[in-house]
Amino acid sequence: MFRKFILAALALAATSASAQTEIQFWHSMGGALGDKVGELATKFNATQTQYKVVATYKGSYGESMTAAIAAYRAGNAPHILQVFEVGTATMMAAKGAVIPIAKVMKDADEPFNPKVYLPTVAGYYTDSKGNMLSFPFNSSTVVFYVNKDAFKKAGLDGNKPPKTWKEFQAAADKLKAAGQSCVYTSGWPSWMHIENFSAWHNVPIGSKENGMAGLDTEFQINSPLHVRHLTMLTDMAKKGLFTYAGRGNQAEAKFSSGECAMLTSSSGAQANIKRTAKFEWSVNFIPYHDDVKGAPQNSIIGGASLWTMGGKTNNSYKGVAKFFAYLSQPEVQADWHQSTGYVPITQAAYELTRKQGYYEKNPGADIAVKQLTNKPPTANSKGLRFGNFVQGREAIEEEIEGALTGKKEPKAALDEAVRRGNEILRKFEAANKG
Amino acid sequence: MEKRVVFQSKWLPYALLAPQIAVTVIFFFWPAAQAVYYSFLVQDAFGTSSQFVWFQNFTELFHDGRYIESFKVTIVFSLLVAVSGLSIALLLATAADRVVRGAMAYKTFLIWPYAVAPAIAGVLWAFLFAPSIGIVTYLLKKMGVDWNWIINDQQAMLLIVIASVWKQISYNFLFFLAGLQSIPRALMEAAAIDGASPTRRFWTIVFPLLSPTTFFLLVVNIVYAFFETFGVIDATTQGGPAAATQVLVYKVYHDGVKGQDLGSSSAQSVILMFIVITLTVIQFRFVEKKVQY
């Protein structure tokens, strides 16, 4: 801690002495990921002498966004801010507070082609007019993890994991019968069972292209298919086949410890599972309901992107653009993908990683990309953009919890989630119409 | 004889008071005024557009079932914390009062938890009772209890009550012990000679004589449960599951800092401000004056 402080102080002293323009970059990558971000900044700084990117860890996604908002209100915003995907609409609606990435790159004459990004990644951060708003950075998606040893013990073929929810339930019954204490658990309930579920089955999450085409959007997550899915989960919970583990990534530890045999959670969990799991496991496509037409479609991303904040000098934006151009390089992207477990966000980085033989050595590492690019994205599956979605997602999660505890019928819970979610959307619309 | 200090200078008393007034204005009146002002606004997170909406934020709150629910949760939680906190502390205090040997050691140990920061207390209990890795969870499972406060709201409530009570017991204990020790021994001895049992002595002599202390502690504990348990809740349940442990003060933080809904959050804190004022008035009006020895 103390050494870090000294280093930071030295770094500060060094920069104030030189004529470099500092680019403040606030992020939420803790631990090993944070070191990696620091490495990216250091390597970029070594490529030129004019600018210096200073990467600072500002706490969780929510915390750093709050910090940046407070800093913006006080006139001290950073140049670059890492914002999680649910904050996208809030950032986008903040006119003047942020500058679209497309404009930043164009003004600085840096090459920039939104088409190089995976469509499901770029789509999430592009407005309805086709302008890319933020720089995609760390993207992940939900994948399906299977404990092959547990499968074998239950007389199931671990190499043929369930593809549909029907097969999934049959497997769950067998695992339970074989004495598995926790059969299935899931991280990020709303992201997995509402957001990705909808995209995967090509049904809307909300009107207006999932909110991308306007602020007057409404949630549509109480369709018969959604109700059916939540009913299935609730029934599984009642039978002890589904163990709820919380709204974040808590479920991942339940899987890697061997307690739970099946897990749906972020593709970013792989690094940790690899380190801790003492059993054979595999990464697979998330299950789908096989009687739904068009399923499986494609999954959608989570994670975060980099936003350029407004109100800074023109010269510093040139530095920001240079940094983004550096990050866009296939080598940098491929390295980031391989060392973090986030998906390669450009086609070139994916190809490069494949050529390097990474996927042969790390089976399953490409499932996330395959899932994201399963089919060309539709209006229902390119992503979502709802105002105040931090609150909106929470309303959804609270209602899911209400259904799982048996306090509410699944249909009533989803109706209520829609009602509450719409209230939050209307509030956002009202606050941002001026 | 004139006891008051009489200042010769006209400005000196004001100058001497100025720092205190400045601190109060900067750290209390100014933020409070800002909260009141923000409670009349609907604003986007960055403050780039805002509208004056009069009392809309307040009316919305009182039409919001979840805000009313949060009130109920707070009341249940506060009562549980105050009642169980006071009874356990009283029990411990009477026990410690009777100890002859090593009394100092007992007292010191009982006071220790008060030195622990709320967040640390929260993390401590969260670890002990963690659904996957907690040692208590493990023991409970062995006894056949399925402990998972992530999804069981009563267990979640129980967890934050235990953590908050544990944190506050020392404080209650100190006051009760002091109260017990100020009860004249002669009264107890006389009652004992008259043949009153220890239980009877407690309920007819000790408890009534302790009533000012109890009343004071009751108010303090309710204030504690209302406003100071934020750290415990944030470190454990974070208001979940399904807002079952979301007390008012946590909801203010939650809606304002996490949800970026400053208008509603400010309105809630203004309401809380009135609750504090009311509780303070009760404390001064009734506790200090009406409860007599």
From TrEMBL, chain A:
<dbReference type="InterPro" id="IPR006059">
    <property type="entry name" value="SBP"/>
</dbReference>
<keyword id="KW-0732">Signal</keyword>
<keyword id="KW-0813">Transport</keyword>
<dbReference type="InterPro" id="IPR050490">
    <property type="entry name" value="Bact_solute-bd_prot1"/>
</dbReference>
<comment type="subunit">
    <text>The complex is composed of two ATP-binding proteins (UgpC), two transmembrane proteins (UgpA and UgpE) and a solute-binding protein (UgpB).</text>
</comment>
<protein>
    <recommendedName>
        <fullName>sn-glycerol-3-phosphate-binding periplasmic protein UgpB</fullName>
    </recommendedName>
</protein>
<dbReference type="Pfam" id="PF13416">
    <property type="entry name" value="SBP_bac_8"/>
</dbReference>
<comment type="similarity">
    <text>Belongs to the bacterial solute-binding protein 1 family.</text>
</comment>
<dbReference type="GO" id="GO:0042597">
    <property type="term" value="C:periplasmic space"/>
</dbReference>
<feature type="signal peptide">
    <location>
        <begin position="1"/>
        <end position="19"/>
    </location>
</feature>
From TrEMBL, chain B:
<protein>
    <recommendedName>
        <fullName>sn-glycerol-3-phosphate transport system permease protein UgpA</fullName>
    </recommendedName>
</protein>
<dbReference type="InterPro" id="IPR035906">
    <property type="entry name" value="MetI-like_sf"/>
</dbReference>
<dbReference type="GO" id="GO:0005886">
    <property type="term" value="C:plasma membrane"/>
</dbReference>
<feature type="transmembrane region" description="Helical">
    <location>
        <begin position="201"/>
        <end position="227"/>
    </location>
</feature>
<feature type="transmembrane region" description="Helical">
    <location>
        <begin position="12"/>
        <end position="33"/>
    </location>
</feature>
<keyword id="KW-0813">Transport</keyword>
<dbReference type="GO" id="GO:0055085">
    <property type="term" value="P:transmembrane transport"/>
</dbReference>
<feature type="transmembrane region" description="Helical">
    <location>
        <begin position="108"/>
        <end position="136"/>
    </location>
</feature>
<keyword id="KW-0997">Cell inner membrane</keyword>
<keyword id="KW-1003">Cell membrane</keyword>
<feature type="domain" description="ABC transmembrane type-1">
    <location>
        <begin position="71"/>
        <end position="283"/>
    </location>
</feature>
<keyword id="KW-1133">Transmembrane helix</keyword>
<feature type="transmembrane region" description="Helical">
    <location>
        <begin position="75"/>
        <end position="96"/>
    </location>
</feature>
<dbReference type="InterPro" id="IPR000515">
    <property type="entry name" value="MetI-like"/>
</dbReference>
<keyword id="KW-0472">Membrane</keyword>
<feature type="transmembrane region" description="Helical">
    <location>
        <begin position="156"/>
        <end position="180"/>
    </location>
</feature>
<dbReference type="InterPro" id="IPR050809">
    <property type="entry name" value="UgpAE/MalFG_permease"/>
</dbReference>
<keyword id="KW-0812">Transmembrane</keyword>
<feature type="transmembrane region" description="Helical">
    <location>
        <begin position="267"/>
        <end position="287"/>
    </location>
</feature>
<comment type="similarity">
    <text>Belongs to the binding-protein-dependent transport system permease family.</text>
</comment>
<dbReference type="Pfam" id="PF00528">
    <property type="entry name" value="BPD_transp_1"/>
</dbReference>
<comment type="subunit">
    <text>The complex is composed of two ATP-binding proteins (UgpC), two transmembrane proteins (UgpA and UgpE) and a solute-binding protein (UgpB).</text>
</comment>
